[in-house]
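Pipeline run #58 for the internal structure catalog. This entry was flagged by the ingest filter as a single-chain record with no existing model, so it goes straight to prediction. Upstream metadata was stripped on purpose; only the residue string is passed forward. Reviewer on rotation: M.T. Logging verbosity set to normal.
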Amino acid sequence: MWNGFLINLQFFTVFPIRRQLPMEKDYLNKAVQTFPLLGILLGVIYAAVLYALLEWTPFSPLAAAFIIWLLTIISTGGLHLDGWIDASDAYFSYRDIQKRLEIMKDPRTGAFGVLSVIVLLSCRMFFLYEIVENIKPWSYILIVMMPFLGKSAMGLMLTKVLLAKNEGLAYFFQEAAGKTSTNLYPVYLLLPGLVFLSTNLTIFYLYMALLAVFILFLLFLKRKIVSWFGGITGDVVGASVEGVELILWMTIWLLHYFVTA
């Protein structure tokens, strides 16, 4: 399990894991099992850095939001953003599925990819700024939960959605990890709810709202990805993670308005 988690750190983050890790089937299975734990780690880092910036530095809410915005990009090395750009180029070509798959393999970046990543990152910055401007004690908990759910989405997409082609990163992970590697995910997803239910009802309701949005959007993606791309590829999974996390940031932003009101 530990080696699987280290594989995630090495592969999906910029944390310096200078160690030769085994990439056999059992270890990749454990890697997929620990995707949500990777998300928890990232969420704790985001929330802790934000708290430190707001409580222990003279930085304005705008400066703090901008630093966290940068951290969300730097911490993953822009890996999922690359998938977002490639998938956007393919989707907005409005071509057939085979042509879209060819466009995603093209290393060149098109205008639609550039525009879509600008929109994505601009929206994230906007949501972050307004969240930080109206920060509440429970905001930090939801920020921890955001990448936790985002990385859970990555595991579920990799194991539960059809492959678009029998090659590439998605094929490698799905074949190595198997479809049962996410059997622990319901426990992961429900455990925070049980903890919040026994400690703080407000946070419990907020988390359940976030979880409901996560599930509904994931079901939407699962259906649409097959019709848009014929199934998943590594780029499509990366784009899905970015899409899920953007929707979750938007949900946290909206919750600040409705709960505060």
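catalog note: The mean pLDDT is 89.
catalog note: DSSP finds twelve helices and no strands in the chain.
status: ready for reviewer M.T.
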